[in-house]
């Protein structure tokens, strides 16, 4: 079941969901994923996203399991990639579904869409698992910097939404959290990719502000 991949009933698990359009063009984006019964998955993308459009068209996805902040960074904020597009070398063919998987993910859960509803600004996409695999990984020590960087990426996507909606106060609150994580990363993992991710986020926020 899904429990061995870390799923807990009712808990939102952060993953990178990869999809493709009708022509097979790949996309990937960080997404909160839940499972109430540890057999099916619920993905809740915003209706105006590429992920939602692809799920409606191709009716499949891969839930990529990763703790790599860099993967969250480049898939959440496409503008940091060359020409604003995710490089094809990130992707590999999945085993059972048309949607691609991420080569560097630590595990893959391939799903087919069995139901889609629209509630407010989000789609509620119920999926059945058709294939799942985890790579054998060596035991790794916990670093607070990695998780701080991932949280900062998630907050940065919300900063962009808040600024677009004219909610400057909320954007400032979220930026303050990102700066808190930057200070934490500087204490525990200075000079690492984690610090580079957060500095990149803060530079993007300056650009978004104009």
Summarize the entry for a quick read:
With 210 residues, the chain is an alpha+beta fold.
Give an overview of the whole structure.
The chain is α+β, with helices and mostly antiparallel strands and 210 residues long. The chain folds into two domains: 2-134, Electron Transport, Fmn-binding Protein, Chain A (Pnp Oxidase, Chain A, Roll), CATH 2.30.110; 144-209, no CATH class. 36% of the residues lie in helices and 27% in strands. The chain is built from five helices and eight strands; from the N terminus they run βββαβαββββααα. It has helices at residues 50-58, 69-76, 144-164, 168-188, 193-209; strands at 13-20, 26-34, 40-43, 60-65, 91-92, 101-102, 107-119, 122-134. It has a six-stranded antiparallel barrel with strand order 1-2-3-8-7-4. The longest helix has 21 residues, at 144-164. The protein is globular and about 40 Å long. The N and C termini lie far apart (47 Å). The mean pLDDT is 96.
The tally of structural domains comes to 2
Instruction: Please trace the helix and strand order, writing H or E for each element.
Output: EEEHEHEEEEHHH
Overall mean pLDDT stands at: 96
Instruction: Specify the biggest β-sheet.
Output: 6 strands, antiparallel, barrel
Low-confidence spans = none
CATH superfamily of the largest domain: Electron Transport, Fmn-binding Protein, Chain A
Radius of gyration: 17 Å
Identify the overall geometry: globular
The CATH topology name of the largest domain reads Pnp Oxidase, Chain A
Strand content: 25-35%
CATH architecture of the largest domain: Roll
Structural class comes to alpha+beta
Say how many strands there are. 8
For the record, give the distance between the C-alpha atoms at the N and C termini, rounded to a whole number: 47 Å
Instruction: Please give the order of strands in the largest beta sheet.
Output: 1-2-3-8-7-4
The CATH class of the largest domain is identified as Mainly Beta
Tally of individual helices? 5
Helicity level, as a percent range? 25-40%
